[in-house]
Structures are given as C-alpha cells and as structure tokens.
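Figure 2 data, in text form.
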Amino acid sequence: MTKKAATQKVAGPELLPAGDRRAAGKALRRHVPRESHSGWDAPRDRRDPIDILSASNDGRLPHLIPIRFGRMSQSPFAFYRGAAAIMAADLASTPQSGLRVQACGDAHLMNFGGFATPERNVIFDINDLDETLPAPWEWDVKRLSASVVIAARHLRLADSDAAKAAIATTCSYREKMANYASMRVLDVWYDFIDVDRFIESVEEEETGDHLQIEQAIERAKKKSTPEILFPRLAEHRGALPVIKDEPPLIFHPTEEQARGVKTGYSEVLERYRESLPEHIRVLIDRFRIRDFAFKAVGVGSVGTYCGIALLTAADDDPIFLQIKEAKASVLEPYAGKSLYTNHGERVVAGQRLMQSASDIFLGWFRSLDGRDSYVRQLRDTKVSAVMEGWDFKTLRSYGKMCAWALARAHARSGDAARIAGYMGSGSTFDEATGEFAMEYADQNEEDYRSFVTAIREGRIEVNVEA
C-alpha cells in the first residue's frame, strides 16, 4: 500500500462478466482484509492539524479567514465540516483495496441534499463536490460514516446509537452497491433518488413525516423564485438593479480584489460562456450581467473567492449565478494531480459524472488574475438538512440515504461489481468501518480541542458574529 496513487485515472469496469469481477474484488481481501479497515491509530509522523488548516488559508481573502475559523469553532461537528484537508491526510495512511472511483472528497452529512433537475424535478444527491477527484472509494465511505458519529455526539445521542447509525450507513452503501453491481450499465447511469423514493425510504424507517419533507421542498421552491430571491439579495438604484451589501458576508470587491470591475466582468463572462454547451450559450446570451459581489458561503469555502452575479434578460427577469473559486482538491497530494488544468473544470466534470442530474448553467473559467472558478445557479430549489432536534432513527435514516446517493455516484465511475465483491454480503466491512468512525470521531474531538486552545492562546483569530 502506498500513500500516493500512481495514476489519477479511474479504472472503469473491464469487459468481463459481473460474476468474474465480483470474484476479483473478493480476491483483494487476501491483500487488504476487510477487518484492516477497523479502528484508527494516528501515525507517529501525523502532521499538526493546525498547520494543515493554516496552510489551507493560502490565497484566501484575509479578512474572511476569522469568519471561517469562527464558524469552525462552534462545535466538533462544525470543525469537521471545515477540516476536509486534515482528514484527507489521515485517510491516505489507511488501508486501500486498490479500487478507485470519482470520489466526492468531502462526503459528510451536510454535503447531501435535494435540488432541482433541469426538468424541474427535485432529487436527493451529493450537492457539494468542490474536492472531487478520482481516489479510493473507501475514503468517501469513511468520511461519511465518521460524520454520522460526530453528528450523533452533537445531538447528544448515546455512543451505542452513534455506532449503530454509522454501521447502518455503511451497510446501506454496501447493499446499494451490490444492487448496482447486478444492474445494466445504462440502468445505473439513469438511476436517481427522487422525492417519492426518498419518502418511501424514510417511511420504511418508521421515522419522519412525508408532509414535512413535501413542505420543505415547497419552501425551497418558493425561496428560489425571482419574486422571493431578488428582494432578499438585490435592489434598484436608479434604473439598474444591484446586489445589496451586507458586510462582511456580502460586499462588492475592489479592482484589486477582482479584476474586471471596471469592464463589468465582460471578459470573465465570455470565458465562462465558452465552457457551456452550444444550446446553453443561446440561453445565457439572452442575459446581461448587471452586478457581482463576493458572498461568504459554507464553512470550508469561507475566504475563497466566492460570489454571486446578478444577470437580467429584462427588468423583471433576473437570475443569480453562484461563482465559487476552485482550488486543488484536498485529495490531490495523496491521490494524484487532476487531469484538468483548470480546477473549475475538474469540479464541473466530477459533478456531471457523480450527480444523476446537474445544473444547466454549470460551467467554469479562469479569472483575469489566474484563479480557477466554476459557476452554477444560486439556490435552485436547494433543500438542506436541518440536523438540530434529530433523534436516533432520523439520523440513521438520513445516513442511509446519503450512503445510497454515494453508492450510486461511485457506481457510475467505478467498478460496482469489484467493490461489491470486496465488501461481500456479510457485516464484516460495516462493523470495521463503524469502529473506524467511532475512533476517528475521538480524533476529531482531540483536533477540535487543539483548535480551541490555539484560539485561546491568540494563535488563531476568529470572528464568531458572522
């Protein structure tokens, strides 16, 4: 086992019967037993997590870094959300079967949710793929399972329930992967988790209320409409609309911060347009960019060059696009460099490969100052989980749904039969990953305490108000 893969490509299924590929996956256990995935022991040469976080600030807007760290300081779960780079380094030292997929790179519970397809249906899927890169499939499964344990502790559930929820999450991934291994290739590709399948799965768990899910979707749809979104984010100053400033989270950049202010970002818009399919270029050409502002988002992304652009086709026909800076994936030092020279294209290509449907405005560009970015619609019926108040059954059910979405995404790019053959039909891999999740949650808490200590000692500046 090596910490760094020799090649960055995903090896797709060979033209062999599924049974032969399952057997080949099972044979991998001789070299990497499933039990070897259990537990977590930090390597003696483990890098200081504070050093990793500090290094990840390179190139970020300095005045937003304290906001990022302030959000991470709220709890061990919030810290985990912003610490993908720490776990990537740790996962590189864990056992690997040698099978690779297009990995999410940051597969924690809050990076899954509902959003609208181009056909205006709402599906459940991975919704944040900033770190996507071909990598070992186990890394995503372990990060997801550990997030379930950390969430359980955040909810003050018993450790026994945390372990059960983590094991159920991995079991869901294993069972769904076994299903995908027996499906036709096109059936795997066309598969998606719509609202009806989501509700059906929740009801099987005897938890939640389908009416609450339907109401959440309706609220998300309303928030996405121009009638609701425009007054919240923009206003008219004279004849033209502009984005409202709400510093420090939303603000208009200076020419030094974002080249293109003086020209109205016309060059950047043209670079983005070139990344779009021809039929979407026809659509985007109906709009004109009116304004752009930086907007701090999420936890791990705070401080990167992220913003929103306001475009209109007419005075009463606006759309908002989200622009997110794309840096090198946190997996890159351990899984190999991206084949794409533009990290925005890396994210877009990974998103189209992993998601069952992607936003029609998805594209990328390189800014005038050399920063890679990708573009998508802002809040297109986005339904995010609100974890506060969950009980054990709700957490377990949601973890299983996330695992289903992850298995579907991995099956599109990787060899589902080999992965399924490696995991097998028993609970050995589930329990091993559950044990890893419990012990890595302890590591996360230890790292969080070190982080809080650094704040108290004045080595890290935080802003907890934003």
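Caption note: The two ends are 43 Å apart (CA to CA).
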